[in-house]
Batch of 3 targets.
Target 1
Amino acid sequence: MSKLFPVWILVCVLLCLSSSAAFKSQLLPAARSGTLLSASRLHPQDSKVLVVGLGALPLLTMKTAFFAGYKEVLYILPEVQHAKCAKLMFGDDYQMATDGDGYLVTPETSSEGFGANSCGGRLKFLDGSNSEDVASVEGCDGMIFCGDEPSPPVPWSVAEYLLDACGPSLKQVALNSKTFNEEGYGFVVKAARKTANKNIWDQDGKEVAALKDFEGKVKGKGVEGGFDVTVTRSGTLKGGGWGSTDPLADDVPSVGPEAYGLSDGFYEAVKRDIVNFNLLFDCETSDCYVMRGDVGRGGGNAQIVKANSVKEEAGDTGRKGAAGALVYALACEAAQGEFTVRSKAG
């Protein structure tokens, strides 16, 4: 096989439990066959999902939804970014190609797309400036809002328009936000963000207010439109690459979750120094905890010296864990309300 598609799936069935637990390997075989080990709210093999937001996290979420067996996974972003994002997901060797309906396909064929694996799903990039593309979100059963920045993934006017455009079929919405629990946050964490790592989540007042406002509006829309909203909370986002280079490999589960992620191009895109701490983070900390409620805490007085730590640290969330939690929040019966995702060594 040509090296086109780094296959991965982050598994997180313990999202359905009220206690905190790691979910590295609980659902892997079942997810690839399009089933879940708990009662389902959405049935992946029959469901159409829209991912909304910018950054590496939405790309990871799109891939996770695909390998979890969702029938159709859509992602809205400007057309000029489609090819770049495809390479981040599938590797530098991937040349952007679509079939007659706009679904991503391998360059060798115009009919057999990435859905040719055991999941049977399809992937499609939508151009946000194309009215026909935007209209195609009608009939979506689920929607996921997420992004890399500590701010709403899109302006509320865009979010509201897309929620309305999905129509009455929309049943579940998952939203990635930040932890607002104040334990472990304060002056030192804020200083660490300014001096050591600008991506640290420090509970900036304006950012907290904007995120809470967005959450409230999505939840209010859910009451109005009759769909459920689940909020997953993260801290400082880290990692997200180190993906397998074998496309649609049947034996992918044997390599373990540490081989799932975006292509190596992701590490180059986020590299800030000679030492690529996102790469090292994925090597050391590829697992995660999922805990019911807003119970995350910051790094406290140690944050300044652990700003770029690749170990399991309070206040950190791996992107792969965050993506997995969002996807399974759509289908797990017990995944209602809010959950905190925290990184775990493994």
Target 2
Amino acid sequence: MGRIRKRLSKRKTLKLKHKIEKKVRDSHKAKKKEESKRSNKPKKDLGIPNSYPFKEQELANIELAREKLKEEKERQKELRRKESERRRKLLQQQSQSGITGGTLSAADLLSAQQREQSHDSKSGTEEGSSNMLVSDNAQSRQRQKSHIKELKKMFEMADVLLEVLDARDPLGCRCTTLEDAAAANVNKKVILVLNKIDLVPQEAVQKWLKYLRQSHPTIAFKANTHKGRVQRSDVAVASASAELLSSSDCLGADTLVQLLKNYSRSHDMKKTIVVGVMGYPNVGKSSLINSLKRSKAVGVSPCPGFTRKVTEIYLDKNIKLLDCPGVVFDSANNTNASPEVVLRNAVAVEKVVDPIAVVDAIIKRCSAEGLARHY
């Protein structure tokens, strides 16, 4: 039988233990001293020695410099106050004369907020009087403020603005206020997209294109209407057949993408551009983005007000799209008194309180014989 070795103890002598502890303390002390040397902590000012013969004169100079610094801070504060007052007066003038710069003023956003229509799919509580056309509540007003905030955010970020127009009523969906604001800034471009061209005659589409191209580049467009994979056709809109227009394929996407790529080139060098998509509610902004992306990048709904905030979608490495909530810019001061907004499908039908005014607007546009023949 082999010999069993006795297990050795790991206990150390006190002398060795204290020696190790001392080494650890010295090591920590040296590291702390090294860190204090490397730190940028300013050294304490020891002041002027009493033996310095010109001490009183130096102290007087220091006090004079301190007074000058205090006066300079007071002057800067006064200048900031005057600049704030000047901007406030300028905003008051812009509220009467319109946009004068390349950005949206607070007065314009406030005006848009007052004229924006509540376009939520859910019906709200009716709080208005009998002369109101659309019901309004605190939740709708809060949503209006949020949409205005998102619109301003998109406008400031965008290099190119895609204004989507409904081919059935292009001028009614157009916002010249935003167009003028973008035109005043040389770094912003505006492109008009005439969407839903399959719902109007081709002769009317060509006449609208000729009219709108006098102010901005205009692209005729038909968004994809298929729920599955997005199909895009490379056929020109002018030569598209009636069968192709009635199909679910997208038209005009290649022309629009090529135009955006041209804007992304600067001096033979490609740069990343931000494209903001804006327009009235339910004109097809989200459907246009999905057609360009060839996939369901953002959600779509037939109910106005489905998009609630700005959404970023990368079309490619040089083009980024911004989907913005729809905002109503009506000529009237109050959209509740304008049935034209309801006719543009910018308001949920469930929120219409007085349909008589809307019916009167339809009768004024159409003849009685035509309505009787249709219905």
Target 3
Amino acid sequence: YKSDAPGTNPFLPIFIDEIKKDLEGCERNFLLHLLSYPPKDLPKKSPEELISQHDPDASTPPEPDIEAMQQDYLKKMGATSGFLQFGVSPVLLDPDHATAGAELTDDNADILTEDEFSMIGFEPSFVRPIPQLLEPGEDEVCWLHPETEHQIMWDNTMCADSSKGQQVRELMAKAFKGPLQSTQQATLLSELETDSKLVYQCGLTPKRLPELVENNPGIAIETLLKLMSSSHITEYLQMLVNMPMSLHSMEVVNRLTTAVDLPTEFVHLYISNCISSCENIKDKYMQNRLVRLVCVFLQSLIRNKIINVQVHKDLFIEVQAFCIEFSRIREAAGLFRLLKTLE
């Protein structure tokens, strides 16, 4: 405690009691040094050195303010627990000269114990009743022996006949490369109708959809209808919009629009791509043929109320400009007259 304030020293009461006694000059000077600011070399000196180096004629150290130290000490003790304040002091008194050299016997063996040398006061124990044990409930330790009824879960696909799935994959692989025969188409559509989950295992991906549309549009229509509840249907529709315009692609889109409610944005985007394809083609013969197909396709959408050109003005203006550009073609002129009746 040499670097702490004197009021924080736990032995301060002992020092104050001793300094008030009639002590010899060496002992009094030693206590005054402890209560004020002791010399740096004081902890290194032995008691014999302190006694031998004491000069009776030298001036005594200034006496500190004992009352202020007591007040500081009492304030510090006020922050401790009540039991600690009234505890037995851990300081041991010096034995008298008569018993100083006596041997430790069974009669005085329990005078000094190991706990007496603790720097903490021996506070009295807090008397409190022992808590009563509560009777355990029936459901208190149910987790020790949980009553869980285990049921056997059968895997119905175990040892199942996978030949149908293999046959569907083989037929779908052929459908990507070329038109299937009528018997093969009937077999493939029958298997897909029997097990709707086979459409997810047949090998059809969004990238391979254009191949299926061009070679087997009927199968493409049926598979897309079964994929409408899939989370990947947007990818399939996006691929259908971006593929080159053809008779088969328009057939697929036309059948889809009459069977299910396709997103309006998808239908409008497909119409815009068809118009753009007709305008960019260089071959006049193919251009006239595609314009006729697009006009028939648009008339079918308008008459079946798949699209509403009266509400979507941008689409109305785009289709009208398309009809005026290809007004020399009879189907374009018929589409233009249909638009005029809707104004």
